[in-house]
Prior knowledge:
CATH topology: Rossmann fold
Structural class: alpha/beta
Distance between the termini: 23 Å
Number of domains: 1
Radius of gyration: 13 Å
Number of strands: 3
Largest sheet: 3 strands, parallel
Strand content: 5-15%
Amino acid sequence: MLSSRFQLIQVDTVAEAKAMLQSNAVDMIILDISLSGKLDGLNLAEYIRQEKKDSRLPILAVTAHTSTVDEEKTFHAGCNRFLPKPFTQEKLLASIDELAEAKS
């Protein structure tokens, strides 16, 4: 679905994501909060915002954790948008388009 419109890089852990960010320029991150390993997607968002000091990189958080508290945590960690699962392809693409437009 996304690969027809975008070049994608998929990682499974925060460590893999950090390594990928060191060697690739990316335009946006679609971040599942429940990444494998000790650290989760919120840790990665915090790393991007605080350690990499990258405030312009759009981060779209997707998660099955859908409470208001979970949503607040994603924004506090530095995510720009919260998209609860399950979601439709149209909703995902609309969120991506809105974040891309806001960045430009």
